[in-house]
Amino acid sequence: MTKLAPAILATVALLSGCSQTPQTIREVGNAPSMSPIGSGLQFSQAPQLASYPKRPHNMNNGYSLWSDSQAALFKDARALNIGDILTVTIKINDKADFDNETKLEKSNDRTTAWKADATIFGWKPKTDSSFGFNGESNADGKGSTTRSEQLNLLVAAVVTGVLENGNLLISGSQEVRVNHEIRILNVAGIVRPQDVDSENEISYEKIAEARISYGGRGRVTEIQQPPVGQQLMDLFSPI
């Protein structure tokens, strides 16, 4: 084991400096490459949940010319089928402020004493003794969290599936490259066809199981992330 220690240390030291993946190595001196068209549809491939209720039996409309996909007579059709596109409106303005304080105090004080008085063959010894225990513990904790988020975006999503109850699975992705940094917006979830308005748009708070991701990749993101080896050392380090 002692013979392997230098090799292990050398390997860890090498990994601690490895922050470049094969893709980023290919991009040295170049802007990060953008994802192929259609890759955003794989962002959140949730399984077709069989626990969802089945769609109720449709009423027989006979020879009616009315289509559920038409929100209004003079508006474009709403997305209802696989492959249709709708617009997701994301307007997040959240603010949270938490302040917690905990204070615990405990004190123990116990004293025991005894006294003996007897006569042995005219000798009268006297015993008087006592002992005690004192204990005290204090704990004082305080924590606060302040968070503020604001995000206003529009992204087009594609209907990737239709559940048995008629609800739609949607997934959308948007990439914008600026100065060797790609900003990526992903959105996925389940929507009701009734919530898609006449403009073929839906607000993010009406998306069930919503998964919204806004981040990026590129030169700035690489600098902000610690090396892979350092992350492994932080994960498995006992101290």
TrEMBL record:
Keyword Transport: no
Membrane topology per record: Lipid-anchor
Biological process per Gene Ontology, one example term: bacterial-type flagellum-dependent cell motility
Pfam families xref list: FlgH
Signal peptide residue numbers: none
Localization in the cell: Cell outer membrane; Bacterial flagellum basal body
Matching InterPro entries: Flag_Lring
Oligomer status and interactors: The basal body constitutes a major portion of the flagellar organelle and consists of four rings (L,P,S, and M) mounted on a central rod.
Family classification: Belongs to the FlgH family.
NCBIfam families in alphabetical order: PRK00249.1-5
Name used for this protein in its record: Flagellar L-ring protein
Organism for this UniProt entry: Rhizobium wenxiniae
Organism phylogeny: Bacteria, Pseudomonadati, Pseudomonadota, Alphaproteobacteria, Hyphomicrobiales
